[in-house]
Amino acid sequence: MRLKVAVIGAGSWGTTVASIAAHNGPTVLWARNPETAAEINTRRTNSRYLGTSRVGRDLRATADIGEAVRTADVIIMGVPSHGFRATLEMVRDHIRPWVPVISLAKGLEQGSLLRMTQVINDVLPGHPAGLLTGPNLAREIMAGFAAASVVAMDDETILRELRAVFRSKIFRVYTNQDVVGCEIGGALKNVIAIAAGMGDGLGVGDNTKAAVVTRGLAELTRLGVAMGGSPHTFAGLAGMGDLVATCASKQSRNRYVGEQLGKGRTIVEICDEMHMVAEGVKTSRVVMELAAKYDVQMPIAREVYRVVHEAATPSQAYRGLLRFEAGSELDPG
What we know:
CATH architecture of the largest domain: 3-Layer(aba) Sandwich
Shape: globular
CATH class of the largest domain: Alpha Beta
Number of domains: 2
CATH topology of the largest domain: Rossmann fold
Strand content: 5-15%
Mean pLDDT: 93
Low-confidence stretches: none
């Protein structure tokens, strides 16, 4: 039996995942904008987010969230972290009992400091919660380039069933029961990508950028392990893999934000011109709160926070990193 899938959110990644899922079973994509739903159904494109890339012929879109949700066997949440809870509350009015809910969002909830699976458990208790994460640039996948991802959930039986929803000839899907590690890796790499992008904008060179990315991985691993994640997760697709793709790619929204900051623009004007969310901007604040809560040193994330929220300059941020005394590379502090 092929599972019926509802993907909630028609941004670039939500539409891409929906297109993949449509090859494996009946899939409905919910778009907040009726015009977007109509374009997907008639032209087979979502030009605002994916340009001229064409979605799967079997994918159907709707602007009626009840229509998308009420018969689904799996719900996939493709909305940013800041709108995640409110959209879940809309889903709650239509979802059937025990249906798994999978997050695509790589962020943390402001105020509560909750991971997205924790928000799912809060709004929809009794529904198995998981996530899909990894080095997945939507436009590359839509263009037919191979990629790999991780679907994470603590229920191994459901995990095996979910792999069939996502996998394709070019999209390889692994499983991982370390939900905490996978979520923290996905959220924090966006903050490190802003730091890497600032280096690009400043023209600091590849040696410096490599150091920032590598030490950034150490930072997110320290916090993730302190929160209960496995260190092995951060060496895999949900950690290092996602971090490398996001820090290096010209398609990365968070790297772009950092690059523009490095070139002297303000965070307000950069965000105002973007029609897609750069999760690292908001996550940088939450990360600092979590670092304080778990007593973890995160100098790179701290400097990103200072630039984004306290009007420090990228040059000051990079000088600040040089002032941080180096100790043992393997120091867990």
